[in-house]
Write a structure and sequence with these properties.
alpha/beta; seven-stranded mixed sheet; 12 helices; 16 strands; globular; binds zinc ion
């Protein structure tokens, strides 16, 4: 094993530097993971542009890797051994609080950087904090006793497993938060990796109608949405989205709306409220904007809409997502479009942000791939 670990470190807004850290000592209750794939999502784009901390951070919060070294206690507790391919969630919870006891550790204060400056979470924690390796944009990642580890099923490649996070969110939001099931009608706004994962989850759950919207630049992504199960796709730049939805649903509207757009302003939420059925629909939002001027709050009560906020995924959602990947039922390889080496971390994030090309769906950083010099 190498003596030093190479990492791409965010040192300021839109600035990355390659740095090296020592291979950490691995105690009995911990492990070291060789990072095979760090998935990149819209959150990375946001955090890269406006970092929530000035500290240097090894980004990468959607991480797949191989157990390289493991303490005996960690191996016993987690049921893993050296050589196992695993998905490690980004949460590092306390396992003592009420949320943790409920199994809802994603809400644990110990891993909530928004409210707790000392929170630890992969992709968010300062690289100055020993043993430094708190993110997937590095050759190795440190797994302490409280790392949440899932074994990747046989036959699922590391790169395909790289989409387990959006797929987990798809299952969490579609099934658990919005109750999509047999005969549900669903509108998914935004055909990026997140919207496509919601499409797969809705289809698998038995939805009878899936409509996916996108912009003119999303032409390739809307095609993938159709291949993954969307019954109708709408380019809202060139078509009247609401009129189309009304025609498709015979003026009834849909049961559930999932907003998976990025940078769409208030328009998608306003469309979603109109597109929901007469009463009792569910609208899932991501809260991208801090405020919402002239929000039509009266519509929420007149249509009896329930608003849900997207907030990560649970253990069960991750396990179901891995099973979905292993089933081979959907052509999910259509989603894994781009890979980059460690040297190109900056380019990789910018490509997710739409700065490089229009055919990007899911981007993986492969820390051991030699990128162009
Ligand atoms: Zn993410
Ligand atoms: Zn806790």
């Amino acid at each position: 094993m190498a003596e030093q670990v190479r990492a791409a470190v965010r040192i300021g807004p839109r600035t990355t530097e390659l740095r090296e850290y020592p291979i950490p000592y691995v105690p009995q209750d911990a492990a070291l993971m060789r990072v095979d794939v760090a998935g990149i999502c819209g959150t990375d784009v946001k955090m890269y542009k406006t970092p929530p901390t000035e500290a240097p951070v090894i980004m990468g919060h959607e991480n797949i890797g191989t157990i390289a070294q493991v303490g005996r206690q960690f191996a016993d507790r987690k049921g893993v051994k050296e050589g196992d391919l695993v998905f490690v969630e980004h949460y590092l919870p306390c396992f003592k609080c009420a949320w943790c006891h409920l199994g809802e550790y994603r809400h644990c204060e110990a891993t909530d950087w928004r409210f707790n400056p000392n929170a630890v979470r992969y992709g968010y924690t300062s690289a100055e904090r020993p043993p430094h390796l708190w993110g997937g944009f590095a050759q190795y990642m440190y797994l302490p006793w409280n790392a949440v580890v899932h074994k990747v099923p046989e036959g699922v490649s590391a790169e395909l497993a790289g989409i387990v996070t959006p797929m987990s969110n798809g299952i969490e939001w579609t099934l658990f938060d919005c109750g999509v099931g047999y005969d549900s009608t669903v509108l998914i706004m935004g055909p990026g990796q997140q919207g496509l994962s919601q499409t797969v989850a809705s289809k698998q759950a038995g939805a009878s109608l899936i409509i996916v919207t996108g912009r003119a630049r999303d032409a390739a992504r809307l095609k993938v949405a159709q291949a993954l199960g969307a019954d109708h796709v709408i380019d809202v730049d060139n078509d009247d989205g609401l009129a189309r939805i009304r025609t498709i649903t015979g003026d009834k509207g849909v049961d559930v709306v999932l907003d998976c757009t990025a940078g769409g302003g208030t328009a998608p939420v306003l469309l979603g409220i109109e597109a929901l059925k007469r009463r009792g629909g569910i609208l899932l939002i991501q809260g991208e904007m801090a405020t919402f001027p002239d929000f039509p709050i009266g519509k929420l009560t007149s249509k009896a809409i329930t608003v849900k906020s997207a907030r990560g995924h649970s253990y069960r959602a991750c396990e179901l997502a891995l099973a979905q990947l292993a089933s081979g039922r959907f052509l999910l390889e259509m989603m894994t479009t781009h890979t980059y080496g460690l040297k190109d971390a900056d380019l990789a994030i910018r490509s997710v942000g739409g700065e490089v090309s229009d055919d990007v769906i899911h981007v993986s950083l492969l820390p051991w791939m030699a990128g162009p010099a």
